[in-house]
Structure to design on (146 residues):
């Protein structure tokens, strides 16, 4: 299944000017209980960073189609898709006083310029921004880069 998802992901050509390409990675694998024993069960979890041009619904459809294809080829396969978190990308213009204030505070207290940039990472802001426009003042501010 993972190999087939990787093959399907490689065929996706959609890009976004701000966010780049969508990313799908199998990041957690759980199976087996001992060495030298074929596991009777395996669980894999994916981290997917979508873009509007290759969105959550499209990836849900892709995973379901790949699962269907695998089940047809391997009739004894018990394969389920369980989407337990699905948040869309969040967009703002970045042109607002809150962003400007965060940049000036970053410069003042951290001694470095804080860039205005897009982040493809999932954020609770997806839920908070549902009825807000692209001019709503939003920042994601913290250590590291996504």
């Amino acid at each position: 299944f993972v190999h087939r998802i990787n093959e399907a992901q490689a065929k996706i050509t959609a890009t976004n000017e701000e966010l780049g390409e969508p990313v799908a990675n199998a990041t957690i694998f759980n199976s087996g209980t001992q060495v030298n024993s074929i596991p009777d069960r395996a669980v894999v979890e994916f981290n997917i960073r979508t873009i509007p041009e290759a969105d959550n619904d499209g990836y849900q459809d892709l995973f379901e189609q790949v699962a269907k294809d695998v089940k047809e080829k391997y009739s004894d396969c018990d394969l389920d898709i369980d989407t337990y978190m699905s948040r869309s990308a969040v967009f703002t213009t970045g042109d607002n006083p809150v962003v400007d204030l965060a940049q000036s505070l970053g410069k003042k207290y951290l001694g470095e310029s804080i860039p205005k940039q897009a982040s493809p990472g999932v954020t609770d802001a997806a839920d908070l921004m549902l009825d807000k426009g692209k001019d709503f003042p939003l920042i994601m501010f913290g250590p590291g880069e996504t």
Observations:
- The mean pLDDT is 90.
- Helices lie at 2-10, 56-73, 97-110, 125-128.
- DSSP finds four helices and two strands in the chain.
- The two ends are 27 Å apart (CA to CA).
